């Protein structure tokens, strides 16, 4: 068990379960007209059932007892009600009678629905061992369910902790790796329907003819699995390719170049999805270089792809170099004046929080402030700030926390909470459903994600993109059952570990709303002392603002001496954040600068509470180690040992985070440790002296 099969393992079933499944999986009956997507669905059913039972069911066009029937509305004997409300992507799976025979029906209006329905059928059996007759119905809540690969053309993966890029650009387009197909299968099993192939820090080369041919070859492999290809583009591409004399979006020659380039792309990839753009952000060029707005830039590109049905995803991850205002408020300041100015096929892609994928952030204020602009959620699946692929941190709880955030607490439009999910599905404001993009954690490592448990973050991202209300815990359980074992003991223990894991990381790294205190550049390990970087808003000291008297970033109203970013939320939410007493304690120091003696909800003074949280984080990792050890008899030795090694490192590094952070903050506040707290193992200078050459994912 090296993890390559992900959650699609299909290992031989125990005899009793096989005996339950076999009579209901004797053959696969499919529509006579075939298509690559239908073939993909049938191929997966044969692989799955074949793996479980030892022989794969044959494909036939005659309904017979015990068959799995892939049904479309035109299928003879099909019941119209099966297809009710399934739309273009939904499916229904049920045990019923067709032409007098007892069969299992997978029904959908489209091939795509049959593909998703086939995976759902397989997931059902994998999680319940064929105990109950399948009875499933689902349609996706969001149309765009995308992975963003931060993969460079030389196969380096920015913030990648799972080896090199799976895209072998050099070998493409002629040599196609089996991994591309297996990648597509895994995504299709979750309903992921798009992949941005290259890094947002894009190179002009991606739009040259040779790379378009390479992208087209990948598109051909992914298409039968319902996955469209998108590309990240660099704003100044025509200028850098010396095709134009400027990259000004209002220059007709520039617009004409993008139109012609789009035509060329669509000629090679007829279902090309569109462009993702990082502009005027962290040194990337953009329309501001020509005194044009983000909207003017995005609209110019949008008009180039519009005739082909393409979209532009314009990122809102911007913070300017010259304006020293609070970084957390800059995207809002730049984008809210543009609300309503974007073309219809532009979607603004917003990170979940206002800084940068921290272990915990409040929701990004833009989600509540662009009622006339469709917004796409950007989550980071790869764990840049949460211990790479070494630390076990299940991100389902983090994604869910953001999606469930009520943007207008107490106001609830039409009785329903104004959740972030409802911004994405369009029911809150602008009426257009968008979706979610996840920065992928996939690489050439045999197990795809660096660690076995990081597969769960790919999995939960996809499942929540399909249904943001599916529930992180339910998803953890189904992942554990498919990935390790259906034994209740395994599912209970693994999901319990997962559900507590992200909070543990928050506790030992950034408790109580602290953020951005990681090592410079690579973001590995604690470095709250760093104060010498080129830009103030890259320095940890800028974010925690600890001094002799207190700690935290005052983001309350200007009038109260804060940065004003709490006021970017809708009034009801802003009111909560303006007052430390009503701010959720897990965001306390995000919004407030408080004296070390401030009394927290436990009754402990702030300093003692901070130390308490660091300790709680370390203790939680020790608990995960124990839980994992207890599973040794139930998990294959290879994956058990690999995970145990990582947990051991995580425990050591949690202690390091705790000790280094405490040593540093103590050097600032001069306070004694709370009674009973252990002194840091080493001196602050020892921690400061640590160096990390050649970290993964960084340059
Ligand atoms: C930060 C990463 C950086 C990315 C940037 C982005 O450190 O590597 O390029 O975000 O999202 O999280 O553009």
TrEMBL record:
Residues 6-121 form the Alpha glucuronidase N-terminal domain. One of its GO terms (molecular function) is xylan alpha-1,2-glucuronosidase activity. Residues 450-676 form the Glycosyl hydrolase family 67 C-terminal domain. It catalyses: Hydrolysis of (1->2)-alpha-D-(4-O-methyl)glucuronosyl links in the main chain of hardwood xylans. It comes from the Bacteria. One of its GO terms (biological process) is xylan catabolic process. Pfam families: Glyco_hydro_67C, Glyco_hydro_67M, Glyco_hydro_67N. It is an enzyme of class 3 (hydrolase). One of its GO terms (cellular component) is extracellular region. Its EC number is 3.2.1.131. Residues 132-448 form the Glycosyl hydrolase family 67 catalytic domain. InterPro entries: A-glucoronidase_C_sf (IPR037054), GH (IPR017853), Glyco_hydro_67_aGlcAse (IPR011395), Glyco_hydro_67_aGlcAse_N (IPR005154), Glyco_hydro_67_C (IPR011099), Glyco_hydro_67_cat (IPR011100), Hex-like_dom2 (IPR029018). Belongs to the glycosyl hydrolase 67 family. Homodimer. PANTHER family: ALPHA-GLUCURONIDASE A (PTHR39207:SF1). This is Xylan alpha-1,2-glucuronidase. It comes from Pseudoduganella lurida.
